[in-house]
Specification:
The chain is α+β, with helices and mostly antiparallel strands. It is built from 3 helices and 7 strands; from the N terminus they run E-H-H-E-E-E-E-E-E-H.
């Protein structure tokens, strides 16, 4: 499974990054690509919710592999014949963190859609990670 992604360093601790990234109900406050996101209950493996992109697409999402202060995966439908899994990771890095987001396309047509759109999707992660870092760096201490 090929993934397409980007990473960036931030001065924010993994705990502060987690406090921002683990709250989907507030993603639209800092992520310009998200118009709204809802999650009923805590962010745990198996949790479900919805996201609506700024472009108007509404998607059912499922969270897996949730590890506090380290990351999670979010799976949703993709182009015909695919599902998309977004891998969101936080690693300690110096006095702060390294944040990464990547996407893997799965399904019978992933071999087609991955090369067509994977790198372009990864480029959209750059401003998302920049905004995440800024939000985490300015988040109040927990």
């Amino acid at each position: 499974m090929k993934t397409y992604g980007k990473s960036r360093a931030t001065n924010a601790s993994p705990e502060r990054v987690w406090s921002v990234w683990s709250d989907p109900n507030n993603w639209s406050r800092w992520n310009s690509g998200i118009a709204s996101a809802t999650l009923a209950g805590p962010l745990v493996s198996g949790a479900t919710g919805t996201t609506e992109t700024s472009r108007g697409g509404k998607h059912a999402v499922t969270f897996t592999d949730v590890v506090p202060q380290r990351g999670f995966k979010l799976t949703t439908g993709g182009p015909p014949g695919t599902t998309m899994t977004f891998i969101c990771e936080i690693e300690p890095h110096g006095v702060g963190s390294m944040v990464s987001q990547s996407v893997a396309l799965n399904g019978p047509l992933a071999f087609l859609w991955g090369p067509l759109m994977g790198a372009q999707m990864a480029n959209h992660f750059v401003p998302v990670l920049d905004d995440l870092a800024k939000a985490a760096e300015t988040a109040p201490n927990s």
